[in-house]
TrEMBL record:
<dbReference type="InterPro" id="IPR006916">
    <property type="entry name" value="POPDC1-3"/>
</dbReference>
<dbReference type="GO" id="GO:0042391">
    <property type="term" value="P:regulation of membrane potential"/>
</dbReference>
<dbReference type="Pfam" id="PF04831">
    <property type="entry name" value="POPDC1-3"/>
</dbReference>
<keyword id="KW-0812">Transmembrane</keyword>
<feature type="transmembrane region" description="Helical">
    <location>
        <begin position="50"/>
        <end position="70"/>
    </location>
</feature>
<dbReference type="GO" id="GO:0030552">
    <property type="term" value="F:cAMP binding"/>
</dbReference>
<feature type="domain" description="POPDC1-3">
    <location>
        <begin position="26"/>
        <end position="263"/>
    </location>
</feature>
<keyword id="KW-0472">Membrane</keyword>
<dbReference type="GO" id="GO:0042383">
    <property type="term" value="C:sarcolemma"/>
</dbReference>
<dbReference type="GO" id="GO:0007519">
    <property type="term" value="P:skeletal muscle tissue development"/>
</dbReference>
<keyword id="KW-1133">Transmembrane helix</keyword>
<dbReference type="InterPro" id="IPR055272">
    <property type="entry name" value="POPDC1-3_dom"/>
</dbReference>
<feature type="transmembrane region" description="Helical">
    <location>
        <begin position="28"/>
        <end position="44"/>
    </location>
</feature>
<protein>
    <recommendedName>
        <fullName>POPDC1-3 domain-containing protein</fullName>
    </recommendedName>
</protein>
<dbReference type="GO" id="GO:0051146">
    <property type="term" value="P:striated muscle cell differentiation"/>
</dbReference>
<feature type="transmembrane region" description="Helical">
    <location>
        <begin position="77"/>
        <end position="97"/>
    </location>
</feature>
<dbReference type="GO" id="GO:0007507">
    <property type="term" value="P:heart development"/>
</dbReference>
Amino acid sequence: MERNSSLWKNLIDEHPVCTIWKQEAEGAIYHLASILFVVGFMGGSGFFGLLYVFSLLGLGFLCSAIWAWVDVCAADIFSWNFILFVICFMRFVHIAYQVRSITFAREFQLLYSSLFQPLGTSLPDFRTIAMSSEVVTLEKEHCYAMQGKTSIDKLSLLVSGRFCSLSPSLITDVLCRIRVTVDGEFLHYIFPFQFLDSPEWDSLKPTEEGIFQVTLTAETDCRYVSWRRKKLYLLLAQHRYISRLFSILIGSDIADKLYALNDRVYIGKRYHYDIRLPNFYQMSSPEMSRSTLTEHFQNSRRRCDK
């Protein structure tokens, strides 16, 4: 304790107090370094945030080293600032290499540019999502799921279809779609960049198991990205941002499917039945009973099927 107190005395109490302050300001390089430090410490998180921070801090330490060499002529100040500049530069190069080395298969590139990039998802976050998935090919008239038979053990997102002409070198993308039916009756289509089984995924808790209540059949050769259920739950538990992202995507996809069903239902005078206003039509037509409404829905469905 006595040794620590004596050290404190030497540093604070017995240190000579500045009696004469410099009247002139330091050079422009010193002030530039201070500005770079202030702006650099305002950087965000993530790979690009780190690039921002280390680039500005590195420039700030470089300016400080130049200031120490030219104006102050202090070897220790110059050495420390130059060492810190080298460390920041090495970190910047390492992070830039990590970002630059992120490459994906063609399906993942399409998926990122069409769905995830507009939502502001960074490449490192998307790489985490892509690494836990696989790309699967579904041939024409093959079933992704069968009603009452296929278990719900994954989440899949339709990406694209491929068509090979007589020449093997000519491979072009075609509009792929998957037909959804229940008891042989058509419900709606699933198009690229839509989930195949978002309602089934949302209907089950992580500890529950279930089977498909619909049949999904490919009308063309399709390719989809698939995440295994347990593996995806583990990923969502580890990354809060990815969990929120999937929650938004799945919720939007379910809403699109509901509106796709809604577009097929008419109720008299060619008006669409609106799922948001279930009681509106009953109120507007009080003489129309519930059984009459049901008959209208069934008749409209038959007309759509024709």
